[in-house]
């Protein structure tokens, strides 16, 4: 088994090569690109480096288009949401642009952002937010819509500052924070508008992992994604669907839903492959069939 330090170094080299493969001339503010070394892993890039990836009207529209594409791409088994620029994740809504918008435009933007994060949350494959910089307001809400969150070890600004700006989280933050953190911690985070460091965010349960120096959140996200995509893609999708319904359904109804999801997997080719691979003492080769 590879040591943690060796895994970290190999992942870092991989992510550096990946960064070099990204077109620096791209004008898209959000785009999807598969990992060159493993097309089963794709990255959803936020690409407004000059504004710490603050969400503009253009970025929101492109995020919607990206998610529509990802949703129907069965070759993607895990999606990592990340920044194209070092030291960034998402600083929330673009407040400079916001000042030029009419009340109708603001309302349309908020409805669109809520819908977009709902689409992200409901993607059929596992999703990971790689938080390598400030995750504020709508940026943290975006990460809440992912299945798992990883913060870079040196990140110092993770929070929901809306009450200090005279508003409240408006893209699902109040609702997802309660589901993720519990009522008391969600109230504390939102009422105080406090900023958390990566270590504090891990302690609070806002993030699931913190990278180990000198690795980035993206480095750690790649390791996690690789652990995920080695498993059967149909099973991953069924597991995500069943888990996502757990908080909405009474226990017995949820158990019935789980059973129905389980039964559908028993007749798949991947299930047969798993049994044959186990018997032959070899890694299974899953095809999503």
What is the structure about, briefly put?
The chain is α/β, with parallel strands linked by helices. Helices cover 49% and strands 13% of the residues.
The CATH superfamily of the largest domain is known as 2-enoyl-CoA Hydratase, Chain A, domain 1
Percent of sequence in beta strands: 5-15%
What order do the strands of the largest sheet run in, or round the barrel if closed?
A: 1-2-3-4-6-9
* CATH architecture type of the largest domain: Alpha-Beta Complex
Uncertain spans: 1-14
CATH topology of the largest domain: 2-enoyl-CoA Hydratase, Chain A, domain 1
What keywords describe this structure?
single chain, 289 residues, alpha/beta, 2-enoyl-CoA Hydratase, Chain A, domain 1, Lyase 2-enoyl-coa Hydratase, Chain  A, domain 2, 2 domains, three-stranded mixed sheet, 12 helices, 49% helix, 13% strand, globular
Topology:
Elements: H1 4-21, E1 30-35, E2 38-46, H2 57-71, E3 78-83, H3 95-98, H4 103-121, E4 127-131, E5 135-136, H5 138-144, E6 148-151, E7 158-159, H6 173-181, H7 183-192, E8 195-196, H8 198-204, E9 209-210, H9 217-229, H10 233-245, H11 251-265, H12 269-280
Write structural notes for this entry.
The protein is an alpha/beta fold. The protein has 2 domains: 27-230, 2-enoyl-CoA Hydratase, Chain A, domain 1 (Alpha-Beta Complex), CATH 3.90.226; 233-280, Lyase 2-enoyl-coa Hydratase, Chain  A, domain 2, CATH 1.10.12. The chain has helices at 4-21, 57-71, 95-98, 103-121, 138-144, 173-181, 183-192, 198-204, 217-229, 233-245, 251-265, 269-280, and strands at 30-35, 38-46, 78-83, 127-131, 135-136, 148-151, 158-159, 195-196, 209-210. The strands form 2 sheets. A 6-stranded mixed beta sheet has the order 1-2-3-4-6-9, sandwiched between helices. The chain has a 3-stranded mixed beta sheet with strand order 5-7-8. α2 links the parallel β2 and β3 (78-83). It starts with a helix and ends in a 9-residue tail after the last helix. Residues 1-14 have low confidence and may be disordered.
